[in-house]
Amino acid sequence: MESKNIILLDIDYITHEEKAVIRLFGKIKEENGKTGEKKIIALDETFEPYIYLITNNIEKCKEDLEKLTPMPEKVEKVRKKRFQIEGEFLKVTFKHPQDVPKLREIIKDLESVDDIREHDIPFYRRYLIDNDIFPMSEIKLSGELINSFPTIKSKDSDLEIIKLEKPPETVDSEFPSLRILSFDLEVRNPDGMPNSKNDEIIMIGISSNFGIEKVISTKGKDLEFVETVSSEKDMIKRFANIVKSNNIDIIVGYNSDNFDFPYLKDRAGIYDIKLDFGMDGSDLKFLRRGYTNAASFKGLIHVDLYLVMRRYISLDRYTLERVYFELFGEEKIEVAGDRIYQFWDNGGEELTNLFKYSLDDVVSTLKIAEETLPLSLELTRIVGQPLFDLTRMATGQQAEWYLVRKAYEYNELVPNKPTGGEFSSRKSESAVGGYVKEPEKGLHDNLVQFDFRSLYPSIIISKNVSPDVLLKSHLGEEYNIANYLNKEDINENDFNISPEYNNKFAKNPVGFIPSVIGNVISERLKIKKQMKESNDETERRILKVQQDALKRLANTMYGIYGFSRFRWYSMECAESITAWGRDYIKETMKKAEEYGFKAIYADTDGFYAKYDHSDK
């Protein structure tokens, strides 16, 4: 049996001989922490999809399930927690992930079934969660090296295929050093918006963190950084060759999901050129992510930085020029989009400027990637979902998938996503926000700032704000809080009661989400302490990224109770958090006045006050 330690880059599943096969894409890790030349695709044929059933008659439900076509592979009783209350449920295992959507509504309609759970967790994500492995981390593979596999078309001599004999194991590892390449297209567009049927690509800019920095074009022979080819067809083939021959881990673009890759695919199709950059030899595919299609290669991670930046910083607009200036305080070269074809046609100095603009685009994109990707990579290692997916998730989705993973650790059943009707109903609800006091006009001196550290996460933890400890018939049945608390009698001292709404949250046991947030904050404080104690600049930089990722995760969680698509949605929780927040800030402003501090402006988790010591 062979054993290999790799950096896990990507994951998917395919169907082979009517069986779902998990594929893990990775690179051998070298001693210097970099990904090596050797690529690996690991195959696991042993993992099977499953769902949980909440049933009113376990034995009758088993009989009902035996009548289904296709019949489940296995039905077993398991003990799980549902909102912290332990009980017996049925775990139903299927032969293939596609059996789940085929049968879930049929199963849900059975008289013996009250509800189904965890039917909407994608198969490859389920594999990551159940096996406790994390993309962008080191894992140990054990199995048999094989020469080929039907779904792997790559002829790369540096590719190994291993058939796993047992699940992968996580290995403690430092942050991997990855090979990144940025690219950008320039198109001759005389009629305005480029049309891929008619308008040719005139330049492909490339920049990397391993030494390549150039523009490929049919013009520009006299420029040192331009590689000149004879035709657009040769330009696309040359770009494809560079990508395939340089062992790239991540390819980045700016708005590349919506423009560069769709356009490149269309133009490559005209010349019958394959963009087969996938580690398995597969071509470019577009996968639905949210409301858009995302350009995907198996084992080569494509990151569209435009999507990342919309969640990384808050700006009035997100052009490459605007983002670059915000991050680095420098202007980048600009050419108006409607003048690109004129610069191309006119030649001379204008053409030279167009080439410089093309190179500057990819250099700037790479620089943005090197500045911002460490945070996304760290979140990938925390949330435990692939980087390709994570960079296309809203922050609330990232937090939710972190909670899904934690629910598995806590042996908790994961709530379902809302149905269409539930979603519509939730959309009509909204929680009142934080307290805001409009600033007093004028020029003020003797100002001090009062600021609550992590106000909302702290409220969630200290007040135990969580739907599983909320006094409510939240399980669709009479909820006996006294039994839940293991007490014969209960009184108001057993609860934290929110101002304004009087929502009651049991003080014990600790709620699921407060427990998770508490662990996140504790881990962040531990890392901050390590930062202070470290004298190693590289270690401090890595720790800074880790604590920033944990901070974002904790601060995201307070807001998603009121997010309509959130699995643990609770308007009572959302409104209670902000009510306590308003109460705290008002009380603090009132207390500050007793010491001569008059608040002149307040917003959510802090306020500015003017010190008036005339009467003190």
Automatic annotation (TrEMBL):
Pfam families: DNA_pol_B, DNA_pol_B_exo1
EC number per UniProt: 2.7.7.7
Keyword list, A-Z: DNA-binding, DNA-directed DNA polymerase, Nucleotidyltransferase, Transferase
SUPFAM superfamilies hit by this protein: DNA/RNA polymerases (SSF56672), Ribonuclease H-like (SSF53098)
First and last residue of the signal peptide: none
A molecular-function term among this protein's GO annotations: nucleotide binding
PROSITE patterns assigned to the protein according to its UniProt record, in alphabetical order: DNA_POLYMERASE_B (PS00116)
One GO-annotated biological process of the protein: DNA-templated DNA replication
Record's catalysed reaction(s): DNA(n) + a 2'-deoxyribonucleoside 5'-triphosphate = DNA(n+1) + diphosphate
Domain annotation DNA-directed DNA polymerase family B exonuclease: ranges: 115-323
The keyword Transmembrane belongs to this UniProt entry's keyword annotation: no
Domain DNA-directed DNA polymerase family B multifunctional as annotated: residue spans: 400-611
Enzyme class: transferase
UniProt similarity note: Belongs to the DNA polymerase type-B family.
Name of protein: DNA-directed DNA polymerase
